[in-house]
Amino acid sequence: MITISLCMIVKDEEATLWNCLNSAKDIADEMIIVDTGSTDRSKEIAKEFTDKIYDFEWVGDFAAARNYSFSHATMEYILWLDADDVLLPEDQQKLLELKNTLDPSIDSVSMIYNYGFDKYGNVTLSFRRNRLVKRSKNFQWYGDCHVYLQVNGEILDTDICVSHKRIHHSSGRNLAIYEKRIAKGDVFSPRDYYYYAKELMENGFHEKAIENFNIFLNMKGGWREDKIAACGKLGDCYGKIGDVKKQKEAIFKSFEYDSPRPEICCRLGNLLKKDRNYKAAKFWYELATKYERPKDNWGFFNEAYTTWIPHLNLCVCYYYLGNYEKAYEHNEIAREYRPQDKSILYNKQLIENKF
């Protein structure tokens, strides 16, 4: 059996920290909590689970804080979580089984990160992260904002999930970090430009986000998955400012990097449906439902764009094309994922009245 250090950085996380630590208490042999300046009860909550609590002066650098937490670990492997993450019971059991059976030649274990959920509990956004790493390899975090853990060696991909249960989000915090770097004259990498553009977009600066998404897309280098995602987000930004021509160009640009992804298909379907071109829109929504995610794809994946979203829109398209049987069929598929969705229930009643 391997031993595990849980390493975390926290600040003002009293709303979620207890649930996180409680979900990991039977897995971790020690818990390392690095506090970056809490003014709430975060430290008191952490003391219920561990006495290994360390202060770290916040310097606007998440990688530095995470690396500091790793430096205090003493066990064979390091597990990292955020304060608003939890391990659900089935995943706790899977991780305990892995702890008992893991081959010590494994350098890193990746797990699925279920990052977004709808109000019905369906996963809406997931991706894979290296979660459990061998301490002796001294893997380091990089980046001061949207950080990443650089690993190498033998990596084991598992179906263990970490579930993100976010309650609050300080949207301007990350943007401020990037703006400070710009003011210092830092040179941005392709990854920096992508995440800076994302922060601009999330804070409503769509024209500036467009500028930086385009810089990123025109740069050599950068992860293919980020390039594809940037095309979709760039299209959304153009849509916000009413430039439909540029919106379509941005969406189609994603085809330069890979075959059409489901979220791209749905974006095209939405534009065509808005123009009442239901036959053409139907083609793209149907294509979205046929997408199979490659097992080795670590990119962001929104299950909604292969399930209820395209089926709900196919219901609308078939309805206006006069094919009520197909409209009902797709609405029923959407209802399997969102049985209490008012729009889906309305469609059900509306179409049943047509028979």
Automatic annotation (TrEMBL):
Q: Which UniProt keywords apply?
A: Transferase
**Would you say which domain of life the source belongs to?**
Bacteria
Which parts of the sequence belong to the Glycosyltransferase 2-like domain?
Answer: 5-147
What CDD domains does UniProt report for this protein, alphabetically? Beta4Glucosyltransferase (cd02511)
Q: Name one GO molecular function term.
A: transferase activity
Instruction: Identify this protein by name.
Output: Glycosyl transferase
